[in-house]
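Contributing new records

If you add data, match the layout below exactly. Sequence lines come first and carry their own label; structure lines follow with theirs. Keep one chain per record. Anything else will be rejected by the validation script.
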Amino acid sequence: MLERFKVPKEDEVRVPAPALRSTVEALFVKMGVPEEDAQEGANTLVMTDLRGVETHGVSNMLRAYISNYQQGSLNPRPNWRVLHESPSSASVDADRGLGVIVAPRVMRMAIRKARETGVGAVSMHNSGHTGAVGHHAMLAAEADMVGVCMTAGWPGIPPTFGAEPRFGTNPISIAAPASREPFFLFDAATSTIAGNKVRLAQRVEADLLPGWIAGADGLPKSEPTPATNLGEYFLLPLGGSREHGSHKGYGFAMMSEILARLLGGSPSPMTDPAMRGNSGTFFTAYNIAAFTDLDAFKRNMDDMLETLRTTKPAPGYERVLYPGLSEHEETQDRLANGIPLHREVLDWFDDITAELSLPRLERVEPSR
């Protein structure tokens, strides 16, 4: 994640991962979520924060989930069900359940199918926010498979040359296991930046850079812009302008829309306004052993990832990273030293835990 989005050291408070997990779980239970589901949702959020993906961890998303439960737009006890199924595929109606809770279960369904048939693919619709899609892809990688997960959210991104929002940020992820090297994990929005990075920018008072956003007329802004109300501008497809490849981000967004919505039988919110606020997600697990020798695959992954990691850096840069390496390093640091949260986020935790008669979230005591 770019330094401009990280919590400034002077505003950073670290909290232990187990304490954060326990508090998040207790908050979900207070919303009427069953204990097992609360554990699943807390695990998704805390693992996301451990990997350093603050955009989709507790800082940005938990308060929105709590608000959605309180307003009744999320179902705390969804009766999610399979609508269509074959040995290798399925489509699922999530019954307005929160995606960070339902999605891991659906990815495990894809994994089970992949063990039997080689490839498991499931399309899920009618859910709340799915969280970091990379978390779900990693579940397959941890099961010795290649995992792919993508989601289609509510419209906020115009198509190339457009001046009206038609797509969500529609992120795409892929994860693959290795032996010696940290796992490969790629997770990126199909817009110039993830929508939740705007909230991070607001919190740390960072400007949005030229080419990231468009004005109401759809034309890219060529100067830094304060991260004010997102309704005053649009995020752009990845690439920003046609000359810089925004048609590619536009096409990737459509790929998510087709697989995560239409393939599962759901219309797009761009054609059916009733679908606004509804996420669709597509999960695929590829059983490596059905394609090649698992150990050989992992050796080849190690060789490729090591080659990338040891590539000579360009002047002014310390090293070359591959997707998943920095997330692995963040996880090790945050497990040892706590997860950094902005003071404003801690203030929200203090308010909501007091309101719901829960213990105050524990902090890491500063070393002396």
